[in-house]
Design a protein that fits this description.
alpha+beta, two-stranded antiparallel sheet, 12% strand
Length: 228
C-alpha cells in the first residue's frame, strides 16, 4: 500500500490489483508515446489558444474581483497530489460559501460537489463552464506531465478521503482534460457510474481509444450536456 499525505487528508492508494478491473498491459513504449503525444499536443494548443486565453483572462479580471487563475490541490495518478490550474469561474470567496450550499448538492457530497445554477458562479464563469473554456489552463498541467489529454477527472483530496477500494482503482490512470465521463454526460452522471466509466477506460486503454475520445469531445462541448 502506498500512502500520500496532503493538506486535507491522508490518501491511501491500494497498489494491489483488485479482481474488479482487468488492467491492460501498458508497455513502456505505448505509455511513453502517450506522454509525448500529450505534451506535443498541449504545447501546440497553448500556442494556438494564447490570444483567446488572454481575452478570457481579461474578461474575468474586468467583470469580477479576484485572481484570473486558481490553483487547487488535486489527486493524480497513484494518489500523488498536484496543483490543478483553471480559469476562475466563481466568486473569489466561493470556498467559504460551500458549507451553506451542502443541501443543494446534486451528488453525494462526500465524493463530488456540484450544484445546478450554483449562485457562486459569475456571469462569465457560467459561459466558461458551459463551453469548458475554464479548463484550458489544464494544458499547463499536461505540459508538466501531471495530467493527460484523456483520463479520469482529477478528484479533490477531501473526495478521495471517502473512497473505498473500488473507487481507488480510478487513480491507476493519469487524470485527463477529457474522458468517457465528459463525453457521456458529465455532471448528470452519478458518482458511481462515473467511477464505472473511469474503470472502463482503465481496462480498455489504448492510444486509439484516447484519439476517439478526443475527436468526440468537441461535439460533447457543443451539446453542453451536464456542463454546469
Amino acid at each position: 500500500m502506498r500512502s500520500v499525505v496532503t493538506r486535507d487528508a491522508e490518501i491511501e492508494f491500494v497498489a494491489t490489483e483488485p479482481e474488479v478491473v482487468e488492467y491492460p498491459q501498458l508497455n513502456s513504449f505505448a505509455y511513453a508515446l502517450k506522454g509525448v503525444f500529450d505534451r506535443v499536443a498541449a504545447a501546440l494548443l497553448l500556442a494556438v489558444l494564447a490570444i483567446p486565453m488572454l481575452v478570457i483572462a481579461a474578461l474575468i479580471k474586468l467583470t469580477s474581483p479576484g485572481a484570473v487563475l486558481i490553483g487547487q490541490e488535486r489527486v493524480g495518478r497513484y494518489g500523488h497530489p498536484f496543483t490543478f490550474y483553471k480559469f476562475r469561474s466563481m466568486l473569489a470567496d466561493a470556498e467559504l460559501l460551500r458549507d451553506q450550499l451542502e443541501d443543494h448538492n446534486h451528488h453525494d457530497a462526500k465524493h463530488i460537489f456540484k450544484i445546478k445554477r450554483d449562485p457562486r458562479i459569475t456571469r462569465i464563469g457560467g459561459m466558461l463552464r458551459r463551453t469548458s473554456l475554464d479548463e484550458l489552463p489544464n494544458l499547463f498541467n499536461v505540459l508538466k506531465g501531471e495530467m493527460s489529454l484523456v483520463g479520469p477527472r482529477p478528484p479533490l483530496p477531501r473526495e478521495v478521503a471517502h473512497y473505498d477500494d473500488y473507487h481507488m482503482q480510478r487513480l491507476v490512470a493519469m487524470p485527463g482534460l477529457t474522458g468517457l465521463w465528459q463525453i457521456r454526460g458529465r455532471c448528470e452522471i452519478p458518482f458511481e457510474k462515473m467511477v464505472d466509466m473511469d474503470l472502463e477506460y482503465v481496462s480498455r486503454w489504448s492510444l486509439w481509444l484516447d484519439l476517439t475520445i478526443i475527436l468526440k469531445t468537441p461535439l460533447a462541448v457543443i451539446r453542453g450536456r451536464g456542463a454546469w
